[in-house]
Structures are given as structure tokens and as C-alpha cells.
Specification:
Elements: H1 4-14, H2 32-47, E1 51-54, E2 60-64, E3 73-79, H3 92-107, E4 116-121, H4 134-140, H5 158-164, E5 182-190, H6 195-199, E6 203-209, E7 211-220, E8 224-225, H7 237-255, E9 259-261, E10 265-268, E11 274-275, E12 278-287, H8 290-311, E13 314-322, E14 326-327, H9 330-343, E15 349-352, H10 358-361, E16 367-372, H11 388-407
Parallel strand pairs: 3-4, 3-5, 5-16, 6-15
Antiparallel strand pairs: 1-2, 2-4, 6-14, 6-16, 7-12, 7-13, 8-11, 9-12, 10-12
The protein binds (2S)-amino(hydroxy)ethanoic acid and manganese (II) ion (2 copies).
(2S)-amino(hydroxy)ethanoic acid binds next to loops.
Length: 409
Amino acid sequence: MINGDRLWNRLLELGTIGKQPSGGITRLSFTKEERAAKEKVASYMKEAGLAVYEDAVGNLIGRKEGKEKDAPAVLVGSHIDSVYNGGMFDGPLGVLAAVEVLQTMNERGVKTKHPIEVVAFTDEEGARFSYGMIGSRGMAGTLSEEELVHQDKHGISLAAAMEEAGLDPGKIGKAARRKGSVKAYVELHIEQGRVLEQANLPVGIVTGIAGLIWAKLTVKGKAEHAGATPMPIRRDPLVAAAQIIQVIEQEAKKTGTTVGTVGQMQVFPGGINIIPERVEFSLDLRDLDAAVRDSVFLSIIERAKQIGNERNVDVAVELLQKMPPVLCSELVQNAAKEACRQLGFDVFTLPSGASHDGVQLAGLCPIGMIFVRSKDGVSHSPEEWSSKEDCAAGANVLYHTVLSLAMTA
Ligand code: HGY
Ligand code: MN
Ligand code: MN
């Protein structure tokens, strides 16, 4: 069994980095908080007896050699960057459980056929630049320098932030892994939903990961005096945006499986006595079925354009990122099911509404995930919580899953 106390204490310690007065954690990619978190995790990896290095996109990696040095590696990990004001488990649980698994193996003198690498992926969340999974895209070889133009709210581009962090945007291709060099990728993660809690189970095995679309909608009207402009002649972009946001909710609800969210909005110029000139807001749209998601997206855009015409405002839609839904491989799912059986846990499968780095790695190698129960299903919030026992249960399932993948041919 893994050392549950050591895992828990590391979770608490890492959770102090980027802590906000609100109690949430803000550890955005390529910031000093994330740098401090990487140093901390690198120290845990060294304590675990791993060879530690960062690749060309800033993924932090700890490697345990296998009996067959050049055999395809088993990758296990998650991310340590966070959303704004997030929780302490989303990402770090997967990275620290992976370190704990390898440290336990090394303490027991366990040798595996395949090398095993713990990976803390760079910028999984995409919170800072509204463009995510930079590290896993880099490792999959699907990240191009052109994509590094995305800017944060201060106008700093991903490329500039990477340079600031000591990386060379022109060399990101070096992070790409050759097909065949990775046997499988496994990630332990909090569920961030209510299914395991309702089933009264500590762990579950993920069948597939929903595909997301991120877009930015800009509605342009005419700035005018709030007091002197009669209602019938206004070209008010904020009222139009409010109507479009209602449409997003209505269209997503129609399918019963799609989820649509507007998490960000900016109003220009933002004066109390000015009819706004322009409104910008985000759209996050997801479904396990890409065709269903895409048809909802089209319905939203069509209706948004109609509203623009009806209100004589201009509606523009910029697609920021689009990720396909991905199925978890039988190879990893079966290894995780066998691990649950060995440990006496129910074998319970469920889909992931949240997206994860495995989506980007699915073209490189078989991927799979193990979920740990979330209290009240809450995540991306300071209220995010999983119990010490459930975290240990998840890490033990991860141990046996990784062991069986790394032992066998
Ligand atoms: O947005 C997500 O689903 C993940 O937390 N990056
Ligand atoms: Mn997240
Ligand atoms: Mn996550």
C-alpha cells in the first residue's frame, strides 16, 4: 500500500502555494506561483529517487528506469497549474499520487520492465491564456508556435510568458514523443462531479472524456448617454448578450447531455451612465458526442446572429479551441478494473464531463483515468474536497494499475 500520510501532507503543503485570502488557489501557468510549485514537486520527485528534468514546453518529469531501458515508458501524472481561485486537489492529486506510487515502488525495490515517468503537465487549465493543455499538446507533438499567440488579460502572449520562464518557443517541437515510445498514459484525478458520491464509492474508472469548444463572442453596439437616449433607438450590446446567454442555456438543456457555460464577461467602456459600446464574453460548450455538441454550437451561433440583426448590433464569434471527445483505452481500463478487484473496490465506470490532458495524448498512446470521489461534486472552487482515505484509495488503485502496465510486455 502507498503511504497515505505522506501523500496527504504533500497535498496540504503544495496547496499553500498560490493560496488566496479567499481560501482558493490561483497558480496560473508561467507565473512565480507555478514556478514555486514546480520546485516543490521536483523536490518530492527527488525524494522518491527519480531522475528529474523539464522538457521543452516546461513539463516537469520524474523518471524511474525500467529493466529494459529503451522499452516504451508508462506515463502517469496530471497538472499543478490551477484555475482562478481553485481547489487544492484538481491536478496535484494526480501528480503527487504518481510520485507516491514510484516512491513506494523504489522503497520496496520493485523493478518493472518498462520505465515509468511522472509528468506534471504545463498549463492544463488554460486559465491564463484561454488556451489550455500546452504541455500535453507539446508532448503529443501537436503544439505549433503559431498557437502561442494567445494572450492573457494583460496582453502578454503565451510565447512571451514561456520565454520569461526560460523556455524557447522556437524549440517546443523537442518535447514531442515519438509514436511507440510511450506504452500508456494513466491519470488519477478528482471526479469533479457527483456520480461517485451518489454511488457511495471512493473510486471509479473513466470510460471517456467529453470534448469541449471554447469560443469568444463579441457584441458591438453604440455607446450613448444612459439618460438622454430613448429605449427604442438604442443599440445596446449588453442586452443582446444577455439574450444570447439565455439561448446558450436553452440550447444546451435541449439535448440533456450538453453543458454550456459563460464564465467570463467584459463590458466596455464600463461606465454606470454609458450604454456599452462593446461586450466580450466566453463560451465553454461540452458533450461526450462531438456531433451533438457541434449542432448545439451551430444553433447558438445562428440564433446569436439573428439577435444581432433584430437589435442592430454586430455579433462576432472567435473559436479559441476545440477538443474531440476521447474514449479511454481497454488496456488501461482493464488494468484499473483488475486493480480495483485486487483491492476489493467495486468496479464502477463513469464518463468525465471535465476535460483532461489525456485528450491530447490519445493520438500518441492508449490513455485512461481513475477518479476519486468529490464532496458535493464541487471543483474549480475553494470548496473542492476529497477525503484523505479516498485519496489514498485512488493512489492504491493507481499503484496496481501502473505496476501491471509497467510489468507486462
Ligand atoms: O476545463 C476543464 O475541464 C479542465 O479542468 N481543464
Ligand atoms: Mn480543472
Ligand atoms: Mn484537472
